[in-house]
Each structure stands twice: as C-alpha cells, then as structure tokens.
Design goal:
7 helices; single chain; mainly alpha
Length: 188
C-alpha cells in the first residue's frame, strides 16, 4: 500500500469484486487494492476533503469492539436516507458503492492491458496482441465513471444536509468533474 498509511481501505478487494458491477473473481487483489487506493486518493479525497477521508479511514481501521459507533460515518459508508436542505427526501447508495464503481471504471480502463518493454499489450489469448483503443472499453469506462461521480455527488449532498459542525467544515468548495482533457492523435 503506497498511498494509505492504514491497513484497511474504505472497501476491500472482495467488496470491489462483487460490488456495483461485478469484476472477475480471478482478478488479482493487489491490482484491485491499487485501484481502490488511487480512487480514494485522486477521486474521492479532493471532493470530501483530506480531513474527512483521514478521519473516515481512522474510524474504519479502529477496532469495532473498542471504538464508539459513529452513525454519521456508518451512514456515509453504507448509504441511507436523509432530508436535503430544501426539505426534499432523498436516498443515496453510500461511499462504499461509489468506490466500487470507481474501481470498476479503473479496471475497465486498465484491466486487461499490461505494459511490457515492447509497449502496451492486451492479453486475450496465449499470445499478446497489440492494445488498441476499443470503443467498448471506453464506453464501459465512461459509463462506470459517470455513475461513480453521480454517487459521489449524492454523498456530498448528504454531508451538506447533515448540518453538524463536523461536516459543515468539510463542505467541498466545488464538485469535481472529470473527463476535461481531450487527447487527439496526430498523424497515422
């Protein structure tokens, strides 16, 4: 684990395998752990703030028999229902489901591609074939990433609606929208 000082992540590789969209059971847990860490560090933390994610990881890594229950963290992780500031009744899936979608998106983007000294290769049979940008992969990645962003924004709405002193200091200044970079291939 390179990005997280704790033993446990917000979700485990087993949760990611059977979470929002199922990934292969044969997928290496180390690869999924790296995707979980990257999603937490690069996608979730800038939106929910470093303090909130740090406290959440500390809460997850504490011994459940010793630590006092924190219903706000439990509801943030598992999802539930809340009343928005406008008085509207809402429900949300929770941060664990959101991270499952992020991990699925990372796996859809990088899953079957391995990097060798001969370049990027896709392993789909006994021989490595040159990796090409396939429309299906891109669509699957974009679909899962968009779902993850929607779920993360629901978590932000929940945190903003709670109104407790702890979460009012953790309001993100803006919602992060990805897919802003356009890459064009020049030449053949």
């Amino acid at each position: 684990m390179i990005l997280n000082k704790y033993n446990k992540q917000i979700i485990s590789p087993a949760q990611a395998k059977c979470g929002a969209r199922a990934v292969s059971a044969q997928l290496d847990d180390r690869k999924l752990s790296a995707y979980i860490e990257e999603a937490t560090k690069f996608d979730v933390t800038p939106v929910l703030t470093y303090k909130l994610v740090g406290d959440l990881l500390a809460y997850i890594n504490d011994d459940p028999a010793v630590r006092p229950a924190n219903p706000l963290f439990d509801k943030l992780l598992d999802g539930g229902e809340f009343t928005a500031k406008c008085g509207e009744y809402r429900s949300f899936a929770g941060l664990e489901t959101c991270l499952c979608y992020y991990v699925y998106a990372y796996n859809a983007k990088f899953g079957s591609v391995s990097h060798t000294r001969f370049g990027s290769r896709e392993k789909n049979d006994d021989y490595s074939v040159s990796a090409v940008a396939k429309r299906e992969w891109r669509e699957e990645y974009e679909s899962a990433f968009k779902a993850a962003e929607v779920l993360l924004n629901e978590c932000v709405s929940y945190l903003q609606a709670e109104g407790t002193e702890y979460f009012s200091s953790c309001k993100p200044p803006r919602r992060v929208k990805h897919h802003g970079t356009t890459i064009k291939v020049v030449g053949d």
